[in-house]
Amino acid sequence: MINSNHRILSIVLWLAIFGIITAMISNLHLHISRQNLEFGFDFLLQRSGFDIGDTWITHQANMPYWNAILSGLVNTIIVAAFGIVIATLLGLVLAIMAKAPFVIIKSVSDVYINIFRNIPLLVQILFFHTLLINTLPEVNNAYTIGASYVTNRGIYLPTTSPWVLIPIITLPYFFITRRIKTGVFLSVISIGILYFSQWEHPVLNRFNLSGGGSFSIEWLALVIALSLYTASYIAEVMRGGFEAISYHQYETARALNISYIKMMRHVILPQAKPIFLPALLNQYLNLTKNASLGIAIGYPDFFGVTAGTILNQSGRALEMIFIVMVVYSLVNYFSITMISKISHPQWKRHV
Amino acid sequence: MIILAIILLLSLWMNLYADTLTDVKARGFIRCGIHEALTGFSTIDKKGERIGFDIDFCRAISSAIFQSPDKVKYVPVNIKTRFLALSSGTVDVLSRNTTWSLDRDTGLGISFTAINFYDGQSFLVPKKFNIKQLSDLNGATICVMPGTTTELNLADYFSSRKIKYTPVVVESLHQAMVAYEQKRCDAFTTDRSALEVNIDLLKNPNDHEVLNEIISKEPLALAVASGDEKWRKIVTWVVWSTIQAEELEVDMRNVDSMKLSKNPKIMRLLGTTPLQGIDNLGLKPNFIYFVIAQVGNYGEIFKRNLKPLGLSRHLNHLWNNGGLMYSPPIR
User: Fold this and answer.
1) Are A244 and A80 in contact (CB under 8 A)?
2) Is the CA virtual torsion A272, A274, A279, A280 positive or negative?
3) H-run or E-run covering A275
4) How far apart are CA A169 and CA A192, in angstroms?
5) Who wins on pLDDT, A336 or B167?
6) Which residues contact B27 (CB under 8 A, 6 or more apart)?
7) Is there a domain that residue A39 lies in?
8) Are residues B147 and B296 in the same domain?
9) Which class for B163: exposed (0-12), middle (13-18), buried (19 or more C-beta within 10 A)?
10) A45: in domain
11) Looking at chain B, which residue has its C-alpha nearest residue A206?
């Protein structure tokens, strides 16, 4: 029951909150006009005037600001996608190791988790960046693996038309669903296509390796650090899920003489998944947001491009921070909805 | 409701407040936005005190207002925060090797005052590349600091000449020098002064060179927040007074004897014959005397901070000596 005192209090509270927000907005408005600043997003259509080196969507000086935002956003999404896949796989392995019946395997996972979870991510990013730059060879005496080069500027690979990738990406699907014959057939076709298609090889010129595709050293350092760091959290999240499963399940599986790996895969994991899934999604969001730390090593991710370069070059601090907040919340909202939509039917089926 | 009323009143009160000089005098010191660490321009000496070219101009403003050069609180600001710190009033003046451009002067709520250093953008390259002109850098990876005018100049210059390059952005001067040393990039571009100063910090300075080619004009100037005309004039005239003093050969050592000079120009400079409009600045009529006596003239400031680093004056000579340093008459 709500008594009238509570109701009055809550109305006052709401009015106060509303008042504070109104006051903030009007104050902002006053300050903006006092300083002869303007608020608006028209400038996004203007020529940006700067190049971005390391992008999946090209950005050059004569392109508008919004294109820079887009290429930064795509950079972040790709870093996050690679990071999420690697961190999940590694985290799963670590979690399974943590529950293993062997002390050595258990302690390996334990040591890993404690190291990577306890060191700040920023430190790890800087560490891997410094490590890679200092240990990998300079561009003119790169390690060569076939037509690929590994240098302290990045990894350079030969490339070909992206359409070739389609049969290769779909291959695992057929093997997972055990349509082996289709799988083998497709593999033969893709090997054929790969063999006969036009390849563009990286070539060493006066300064650089050019041609082909490349992953920059900043990208590598960021993805490695993000994956290793998040994997330690994911391992703990999954271990929590495994431990929530009644010990009867483990004992029954053991009594049926099922091997440890098989038990985890077919008995424990399906039951633990709905338990750890929400926490796992949180980790994915953290990873996506943490990609903004790439700014420390000069990786042009969404945050670095918008709140760094564009904010500086256009001087539109308010607008850019606004865009950053809106885009991050939208991206995270949609990715969470999508991932939970994908995962939902599966765990419903098992439970 | 009371809270609400207080907040509204507070916001109104904040808006009525825009007299920096009164603010500064009440506070007892000026807040000067500076570079965290840029050899020659802003560094910390062995005693733990801030020294440098940019620092001396903060001190000069302090002398003009307080008759003492030490009433300054130094606020290190980075490339990103510098303009916002200024327009939001976190600092009173920005003395942080900042290039004056139309865009920045009109769009950011800040106003530039007077140029105290003419710089230009150049390139640091290893000698072994044997670069004769910039087009020899075709295909190179070039380190550049994000959000600077140098980043825009680089893109403009290279794209208009169809020279290909890969930019690598690095957050600070220090990081850029490390990346350059480790061959992450083939060249590093920023203002020539910064390159000339920093080349000595490399392991083998003799293996590297700063290219003679300059691709941009970088007039570095002090800046203040827009909307306070009086404050802008104070900062402007403090800078100009140091240049005028050099022109009249008034320096730290001879300023006291110069007070007795019968040269009308010097008499006006040092406030022996008071000028009509000077009261409107809100400063003492002889504020320039304190600036020169306590900080020195432009030539002295340059000689003290930049000459030991091997920087020559180039464009920063006085106008009557082949340079661009020119103060409007003080009369």
Assistant:
1) no
2) positive
3) helix A269-290
4) 15
5) B167
6) none
7) no
8) no
9) middle
10) no
11) B139
B159 closest CB neighbour out of A61, A205, A208: A61
Q: pLDDT (tens digit, 9 = 90+) per residue, A295-344?
A: 899 899 999 999 888 988 887 888 899 999 999 999 888 888 887 776 66
Which of B164, B195, B216 terminates a domain? The answer is B216
Reading the block at residue B262, the tokens are 């019968």
Query: In chain B, positions 201-230, which contact chain A (CB-CB < 8 Å)?
Result: 225-227
Which domain, by its residues, includes B36? 16-119+219-321
* Per-residue model confidence (pLDDT) at position B10: 54
The complex scores an ipTM of 0.74
Nearest CA-CA partner of B57 in B105, B9, B95: B95
Range of the domain at A206: 65-159+199-350
Give the tokens for residue A126: 């800087």
Looking at CA atoms only, how far is residue A217 from chain B in angstroms? 9
Beta strand pairing call for B187-191 and B121-126: antiparallel
Which of the residues in chain A have pLDDT under 70?
Answer: 1-3, 35-37, 161-165, 167, 342-351
Q: For B32-88, what is each residue's pLDDT tens digit?
A: 999 998 889 999 999 999 999 999 999 999 999 999 999 999 999 988 789 989 988
**Any chain B CB within 8 A of the CB of A47?**
no
CB atoms within 10 A of CB A145: 10
Please answer whether residues A319 and A39 qualify as being in contact, where contact means their C-beta atoms are separated by less than 8 angstroms. Answer: yes
Phi, psi of A217 (to 5 degrees): -65, -30
Tokens of A129: 């960046």
Task: Please write down the HEC assignment for all residues of A142-169.
Answer: CEEECCEEEECCEEEECECCHHHHHHHH
Q: How many domains does chain A have?
A: 2
Q: Which amino acid is at A19?
A: G
Residue B7 in contact with residue A20, Cβ under 8 Å? yes
Task: Give the integer Cα–Cα distance in Å for A103 and A232.
Answer: 19
B325 pairs with which residues across the strands?
B318
Residue whose token pair is 């929530």? A244
Q: Do B139 and A208 touch (CB under 8 A)?
A: yes
